[in-house]
Amino acid sequence: MSAGAQAHWPYPRWVAHRGAGKLAPENTLAAFRLGASQGYRMYECDAKLSADGVVFLLHDATLERTTNGSGVAGEQPWTQLSQLDAGGWHSRAFAGEPLATLEAVARHCQAHGHWLNIEIKPTPGTELATGRAVAQAAARLWAGDAARAPFLTSFQPEALQGAREAAPHLPRGLLLDTLREGWRDMAPSLGCVAVVFNHALWDTSTVAQARELGLRTLAYTVNDEWAAQRLLDLGLDGIITDRVDLFAPAR
Hints:
Blueprint: E1 14-16, H1 29-37, E2 42-49, E3 55-57, H2 78-81, H3 102-112, E4 115-120, H4 127-141, E5 151-154, H5 157-166, E6 172-176, H6 183-189, E7 194-198, H7 204-212, E8 216-220, H8 225-234, E9 238-241
Parallel strand pairs: 1-9, 2-4, 4-5, 5-6, 6-7, 7-8, 8-9
Antiparallel strand pairs: 2-3
């Protein structure tokens, strides 16, 4: 792709963070169902590997915050992880909600004609292997639905490299919380089609720099009207939000 030539971008502008933000237990099928009920057609989620190689959804390296389990999630087999309650921590209404596999989320998205942004969230020390495994799983699960291929992102360059090796056809994006030196070289070197910044990092200069490289522009996590309007005025391609109750995605 020549500099300044942006990649094909089929994705909706509004993206529901972790399924439905904070209105349901994050990264569970309950959250995806709630996001869909609010009119969202694209979701962000976090994916990692169980000890026996199952790709499942969880943000943290450890289980304590969002399940009734304990310890490092990636060191436990799926048979054990699948028995955990991943909803009771949020509210009584969601008690008993299990952890979700990427396969289950893929089925949900395909049944509704929706899109998914999969953030590769490796257990520390497994970046390359997790990137490869998540991309391989995504390529297999969406093999019959190329028009809605998932968008893979990560803060970890090694994970993106693994994804590139395993499924080079799947679009990738580099996540950044700060403007680390060399990001303008790093994103293209990893074959990324987009950069996903903390929303505070976007201004006319960073948008121009990204577009000059042919990169699509996305922001997380946007929960205030003023912040959303600022980003819309800048022309961003994607806005990731917890507030699925506040922002109507069809706007």
